[in-house]
Structure formats: structure tokens, C-alpha cells
Amino acid sequence: MLVSLGCKSIMNVARAKLDLIKPEEVNMDEYEMWHQAYRNFRETTVFMVTGLELFQKTNYVEALMYLIYSHQYNRELLSKGLYRGHDEELLGHYRRECLLKLNEQAAAMFESGEEPEVTTGLGIMNELVVPCIPLLLVHDTERDLLAVEDMRNRWCSYLGQEMESNLQEKLTDFLPKLLDCSTEIKSFHDPPKLPAYSTLELCERFSRIMAALCRVPTEGR
């Protein structure tokens, strides 16, 4: 309930600021600034709530881009004020965990040695995980760096193992992409489409997902 009230209070502050501007005292620059601040906060919240809901449903493929963009947009909010955004550590944790879950799924598919699982697993790595690794490297956060190391170690552990020649070839082709990616962020996915929520519905969904997360053990965050 407290988290939901916090979400509502931020929205109410922006609205109150707009209401305080009387028609005869309209400063369009100030009006646009608060209107844009409210819109940015609301959009970031929708990205976050949608990503966390999908993560809770173990739909990691769909959750990833929502978590990636919510984290990026939230950093922009926080750069303008400590209380302008959401908990950065929470968003960082679920962004990292989503990538680790996808890496685990992809590795299990590769280990199966069967098609189309092998191709699907490598597709997850090439299209989703590898492009996101620079985002974990760029700020030198210890837990993010450890997560990247864990992902790389998992795939490097296959080197020297006996496997079919076609699997060996696919692994040899893939590993340089995983190991050589730098902090340079190259081509990236467009932001996913945002669901249309009313403000009341968004606050309720925010409250529900935060309550659900509070029941999850927080070790390792």
C-alpha cells in the first residue's frame, strides 16, 4: 500500500504543479516541463510494471526489453533528481536476472544437441543477450560484471567437451560474439509497445507487482 501511495503521490505532485499555474500566469516553458516530466515518469512506470509482470510469469524473452528500457529511462529520471524515478537497484537486479535466466535457457537448449532447440538457443543469445551485455559493462557495477562473467564462463565451459561437429562449428562461430563485445552500444531493439493503462489501473498494477516482489527472497540483489 505504501508503495502504491508513493507512486500516486509522484503523479499528484506533477498534477498539482500544473493546477497551480493560473491561465493569466501561464509560463508555457514551465507547463511543458512538468507535463513532459509527468509523461516520462508514467512511461517509465509502464515499462517497469509490464517487465516485472512478465518476469514473474517466467516470460523472460518478452520481459527483457521492458526491463532494459525501464532501467535506461529510469536512469534519465534520476539524473534530474534523486526522487524523480524508481528504485535503481531493484530495476538493475531484475534486468540482470532476466539476462541470466535467458542465458540459462539458451545454454540448456544448446546442451540438448537437438534441432530446432540449438538454433533457438543461439538465436536468444545473438538477438537478445549479447546486444545487452554492453549495458551491463558500461557502468562497472560489480554484480553486473559478475553476471557477464558467469554467462561467458557457462559457454566457455563447452570448449574441449565432446560434441557433434556441427555443434562445435556453431559454438566456434558464436563464442567470439559473446567474448569480444565491448562497452560500445551498437544497434538495438526499438522500445516495445506500451499497454494502455488508466492512471488508476497503473497504480493498482504497480501495487500488486511490488507486493508480489516483496514476497520473493532478496538474496543477491
Automatic annotation (TrEMBL):
Protein name: Ubiquitin carboxyl-terminal hydrolase 25
Keyword Hydrolase: yes
Species of origin: Collichthys lucidus (Big head croaker)
Keywords: Hydrolase
GO molecular function: hydrolase activity
